[in-house]
């Protein structure tokens, strides 16, 4: 989707998101947050909550903006350009699920989430019995985070809100290449029984699957913004970097490679917004995993090329172009990368 295809409201959201991300520190803050723990700034998060971003896909009757996945993706593409480190995608999806759950427990959690008082993320893949439940590679488990975990199927399907670190819920964190973390969580049976029941049954399962697909779309949009910004940075560098007295951007071989990267960006963007159009149709799941597969592969190709365009300096951690590849590696792998999504597409 280009700027001409956006409604005025969505264009305003995308522009303001880019301005906010730039004004809050941009790549400088992304680098600073990467090198500390927790990778989370409370003040920035409260500002994000105040802007209403967390409820962008939440209906207005639930105190959200009610703008749907298209506006969500436009926002995430904008913040992806500056590598915003806060866990917007899983929290936005969690908010959308809690709104659809229509239970008192879900409503209370949603109110705290939208106010920026409680960080809530969802683990898209349901846990499998027997106990203890073992969850692998759960992202964004900052201290105090509540994790929505699903277990079972159909009439036995249930979602509970667990707090890693509480009695009977062990957590072990490992650092990712971009400085974020993945956590392995082990939940004992008694701890699971004590955890608040957020929703259950077939309707809850349908809502869970829908918001899991929303997370795939969100990650895809973030990757589109990320690779687009990386390519623009590389092109600007190629205009000023000279070899044999000539800007390297005039070399035909590099122009062809940059053109291929550009095709990756625009085709990935087109597929994301086509998936948004299909979000309320029977093709939703297939479209979501197709967009994630395409965006994951393209983001890795484009960011690797951008490092090559920078030459030796691109391999130095001090240069910001490397931040884009590191973030692309982390986001592309989340919920399964290219091959995992292709396998799921085939199963669907």
Report on this structure.
The protein has 348 residues and is of the alpha+beta class. It has 3 domains: 3-114, Orthogonal Bundle (Butyryl-Coa Dehydrogenase, subunit A, domain 1), CATH 1.10.540.10; 120-203, Butyryl-CoA Dehydrogenase, subunit A, domain 2 (Beta Barrel); 204-347, Butyryl-CoA Dehydrogenase, subunit A, domain 3. It contains 12 helices and 9 strands. Strands 1-3-4-7 form a 4-stranded mixed beta sheet, with helices on one face. A 3-stranded antiparallel beta sheet has the order 2-6-5. Strands 8-9 form a two-stranded antiparallel sheet. Strand 3 and strand 4 form a beta hairpin. Helix 5 (88-101) runs antiparallel to helix 8 (202-240) and helix 8 packs parallel to helix 10 (284-310).
Brief summary:
The chain is 56% helix and 12% strand.
Q: Give the end-to-end Cα distance, rounded to a whole number of Å.
A: 26 Å
- Unreliable stretches: none
CATH homologous superfamily of the largest domain? Butyryl-CoA Dehydrogenase, subunit A, domain 3
Tally the helices: what do you get?
Answer: 12
| Helix-strand pattern | HHHHHHEEEEEEHEHEEHHHH
The protein's oligomeric status is single chain
> What is the level-2 CATH architecture name of the largest domain?
Up-down Bundle
Structural class: alpha+beta
CATH class of the largest domain: Mainly Alpha
């Amino acid at each position: 989707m280009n700027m001409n295809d956006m409604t005025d409201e969505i264009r305003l959201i995308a522009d303001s998101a880019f301005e906010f991300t730039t004004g809050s520190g941009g790549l400088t803050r992304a680098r600073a947050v990467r090198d500390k723990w927790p990778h989370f700034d409370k003040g920035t998060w409260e500002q994000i909550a105040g802007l209403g971003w967390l409820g962008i896909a939440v209906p207005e009757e639930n105190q959200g903006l009610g703008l749907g996945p298209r506006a969500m993706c436009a926002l995430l593409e904008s913040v992806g350009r500056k590598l915003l480190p806060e866990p917007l995608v899983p929290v936005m999806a969690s908010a959308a699920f809690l709104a659809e759950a229509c239970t008192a427990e879900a409503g209370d959690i949603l109110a705290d989430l939208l106010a920026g008082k409680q960080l809530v993320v969802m683990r898209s893949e349901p846990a499998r019995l027997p106990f203890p439940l073992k969850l692998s590679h759960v992202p964004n488990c900052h201290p105090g985070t509540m994790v929505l975990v699903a277990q079972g199927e159909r009439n036995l399907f249930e979602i509970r809100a667990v707090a890693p670190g509480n009695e009977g819920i062990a957590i072990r964190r490992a650092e990712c290449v971009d400085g974020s973390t993945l956590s392995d969580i082990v939940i004992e049976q008694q701890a699971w029984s004590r955890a608040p029941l957020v929703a259950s049954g077939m309707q809850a399962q349908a809502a869970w699957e829908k918001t899991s697909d929303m997370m795939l779309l969100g990650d895809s949009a973030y990757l589109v913004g990320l690779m687009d910004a990386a390519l623009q940075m590389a092109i600007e560098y190629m205009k000023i970097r000279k070899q044999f007295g000539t800007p390297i951007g005039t070399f035909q071989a590099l122009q062809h490679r940059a053109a291929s990267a550009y095709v990756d960006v625009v085709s990935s963007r087109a597929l994301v917004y086509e998936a948004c159009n299909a979000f309320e149709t029977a093709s939703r799941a297939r479209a979501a995993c197709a967009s994630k597969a395409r965006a994951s592969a393209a983001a890795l190709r484009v960011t690797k090329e951008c490092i090559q365009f920078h030459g030796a300096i691109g391999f130095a951690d001090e240069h910001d172009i490397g931040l884009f590849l590191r973030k692309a590696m982390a986001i592309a792998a989340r919920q399964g990368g290219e091959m995992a999504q292709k396998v799921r597409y085939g199963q669907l």
